Amino acid sequence: MQLIQGEDTAMEKIWAPWRIEYILQGYVGDCLFCDVLKAGDDQKNLVLERSGSCIVMFNKFPYNNGHLMVAPVRHVSDFDCLTDDELLCSSKLVRKWSAILKRVMKPEGFNIGLNIGKTAGAGFAGHLHYHIVPRWNGDTNFMPVTAGVKVLSESLEASYERLSGALKEYTEGGGC
Questions:
Q1: Rounded to the nearest 10 degrees, how much is the dihedral formed by the CA atoms of 106, 111, 112, 114?
Q2: Taking the complete model, does pTM exceed 0.70, yes or no?
Q3: 57, 109, 111, 93: which is closest to 171 by C-alpha?
Q4: 45-94 pLDDT per residue, tens
Q5: Which domains does the chain have, with CATH numbers?
Q6: 46 Rama class: left (phi>0) / alpha (psi -120 to 50) / beta
Q7: Residues carrying an active site annotation
Q8: How many CB atoms lie within 10 A of CB 32?
Q9: Residue 107: CB atoms within 10 Å
C-alpha cells in the first residue's frame, strides 16, 4: 500500500494490477465462452466442469473470490431461446456449484443471476451465462464504494485447485 497526501486528506492506494488487462483491452477474441470451449485447456482457462450442454468456469475478473459462470455450450444470447436441456443443465450446475462453494468457501450468501443484453450489464451479451457470486458479511465495504478497489484474498489458481478437488469429493459423495 502507498499513502498519498492530498490537500486535506490522506488516501491509501491498493494496487490491483491484474485488472489492467480487462480495463485496457477487454476481451480479445470473438466470444469468451466459445473460445474457451474450443481451446480445450481447461485448467489454463479456469474451466471447472463441462457437463452435457453447459460449462462452468471462473470469472477471470471476479466480483468476489469464487465468482463462477455457468453457460450453455451453444452460442445463444436470449433466455427464451435456451433448449429444455440447456435450461435444466444450467440450473443443475448452478445448484451443484453453489453447494460446492458452500462446502469449500463457506459463504454467508450468494448473488446468482443473469444479465441479459448489454443494457442490463452483460459483459458478453452474445453468449448467455449465469453468475454465481459468493458473498460474506462485510465483503462490500468502503473499498469498492470510495476507492473503486475490490480486495480478493485468494488467487484464481488457488481457488481453481480447491474447487476442482471439491468437485471430485462432491461427485464421489453423491452431492448434498
A1: -150
A2: yes
A3: 93
A4: 999 999 989 999 999 888 888 999 999 999 999 999 999 999 999 999 99
A5: 31-173 (3.30.428.10)
A6: left
A7: 129
A8: 22
A9: 19
